[in-house]
Design a protein that fits this description.
three-stranded antiparallel β-sheet; 186 residues; 46% helix; two-stranded antiparallel sheet; alpha+beta; 9 strands
Amino acid sequence: MSLLGKFGALRLRAVLIETGYTAWYRAASGSSYGVDPWAAFNAARSQRSTAKGALRLVVDLFLMGYRIQSTAVSRTFGADAIEGWKRSGLVVEAAGCLTSKYCLLSSFGKYVLLEFPSTNAGGRFIPSGTYLSQGSYECALSTVRNGVRGTFLELGCGSGLSSVMASETASLVVATDIDQGALAGC
């Protein structure tokens, strides 16, 4: 995982497990979970008030994009977590507050870090520089349903979600995209 590095990824995963983020996200996003990534994101954001304690900090930082007092995050998750996330570029610190550069979605029981989207005139979320769409979800869902044996080749992998899902059962996964920006987060 090049984005976070091994320590940052392990610490983030531990925090997500400790807080029950995936189960909360799945419940909060309702019927849109595993169908439309941005509808699930929007639905989960609308359920922010149901997140309590440490989970609320994770939701506010990685789902809502709020500035959070560094001391609150440090007390809850440890100074080592903050330092690892800052070194990896996952969060930035200014004036004693942390802000995440990425939103944290959950898909098929996995965590997906993407740039925070903007909204269009119709209120739909539009990812900037992100390659996760409803089509990506449908392809990943098909990969999960059908399973993959042998070699999995994905041309135009975008976010790489289907390739990640295929890696659980395939003997070899090869994924590429013409856009180097798409490959940067893989």
